[in-house]
Input
Amino acid sequence: MNIIVRGIQDKRYERNLQLIADLFFEDSTLAVTEEKDTDAFNIIIKVEIGQGTIYANASTEEPKLSASRTANYISKSTEKESFRQNKNVVSHVFLSILQQYTGMIQKWGVLTGIRPTKLMHKQRMNGAPAQETRTHLKEQYLITDEKINLMEEIVDRQLTMIPDLYKIQDEVSIYIGIPFCPTKCAYCTFPAFAIQGKLGKVSSFLAGLHYEIQETGRWLKERGVKITTIYFGGGTPTAITAEEMDALYEEMYRSFPDVEQVREVTVEAGRPDTIFPDKLEVLKKWNIDRISINPQSYTDETLKAIGRHHTVQETIDKFHLSRKHGMNNINMDLIIGLPNEGLAELQHSLNETEKLMPESVTVHTLSFKRASQMTLNREKYKVAERDEVEKMMDLAQKWNKDHGYVPYYLYRQKNILGNLENVGYAKPGEESLYNILIMEEVQTIIGLGCGAASKFIDPETGKITHFANPKDPKSYNEGFIDYTRKKIEHLETIFPQKKPESTHM
Output
C-alpha cells in the first residue's frame, strides 16, 4: 500500500504516520508531500488553530471518506509542545480514515509505543481519579475500554507487588547478560551466539563480566546504593557450565552490596536443553529459585521450524527435574502465532501447561523483528491471519483467568501480529518484580555483560539515558574496561554522594 498525505507539509509527521499505517498494512510506504499520486491512496489532512482549540480534518476522494478532530490547544507552549499537539490530532484523523478504509479497529488506538501502562502510572502519580484517567486515555489516544481495563488490572497488581513503585528511584536493579545459547531461534534478535566451538570466547567473556560486577559493586557500596532486583538474561544464562555459574554467583555475592536483602534474583534457564542437575544444584546453593523454562510451543514440528533443538518432552522433563531440585518459582513462555500454528495448537499448548501449572506464564505475540532470521526469510514462514491471532490471544487470556493467573506486566513491539501485546501472567504473589521495573522505567537498570543495555533514570527529573554494551563477545572482550568506566560516570551524574549503609562483605 502506497500512501500519500497532502496538506500538512511538515515532514516530521512522516515517521509517526508510517508507524500507524504499519498497523494496517504489512508492506506500506508513506510520504508527506503536495504531489498527488494517482497510483497511491491519497489523504488530505488540514490543521487549523483557533482560540483555545485545534481542529484537524482528513478526507479522501476515492473512496470518499472523512474524519475530523477538535481538541483543546495550549497556545503558550514551546514549538516542540505545539508540534506534539498538532501530531495528536493529525494521528487521530489519519487513524480514523484507515479504520474506515480497511474495516479494522485498532484497540490500542494511535499508540505505537511499547509501554502503554506508563501512561496510566503517570496519571496516578499526578493524582488523577480513575474515571478521569479512563477518559483521558480514550480521548487522547483512542484506546478501547477492553485495553484500558487490562491496563487498570495490571497497574493495580504492580502497585500491590511493589507498593513503593513511585519512590524507588534511589535504588537500582541489575541486568546481567550471558550472550550464549545452544542454537539461535529464528525469531530472536537478542545477543545469542551458539556456544559450541566458542569456549575460548566464553572464558574471556566471563573474565570481563566478573570485572564489571566487581567495579559496579564497589561503586554501589561506596555510594550506599541498594539493589532492588538482579536478573540474569541473555542468550541463555544456563548455557555456560555449572562451574562457571558457581563462580559467577559467588562473584555476585562477594561484590554486590547486601545481596541477601535484594528483593528478587532471577535466572533465565529458558532453553530446556541447558538444564541439568549440577546447574540446578548451583542455583539452589546460591538461594536462587526463580527461573524460566520456556516451551514457546508444545508442538515438536514448531520447535524444529523455529530452530529450537529440544523436544516437547524435554521441556516437560526439565520442568519436573527443576521442581525436584527446589525451583519454587518457575516461569514458562508461550508464543502466539508461531509458524503453522493456530487455535488448535495453542489450545494444545495450554492443555500441556495445565499439567505443569508453573507460577507464571508469559504470553508473547510473534513479532517479525527486523534482524531475525524469520523476518529475513519471511516467505518461508506461514503464520496465522489477524483474526485468528486475536482469537488466540482471547483464548490465552481466558485460560489464564480461569486458572487463577493475573496479568501483571505488558509490553508491545513493532511488527507484532495483530497489533496485539505481550502479557505476563502470574499466580498472585509470584510476579517478577524485575519485569515490572524494566517495563515501567521507574528506576535505573544497570546492564552488565555482552549486549546488556543500561537505562539511567534521573531520580529528580525522570530523564532516561540509554547506554549499551556491544552485542558480540569479541568487541565486548576488547572494551569492557572502558564500558564499565562509562557506566560508572553515568551513575555519578544521577546519584549524590552519601555514606554507605552496612554491607555484608
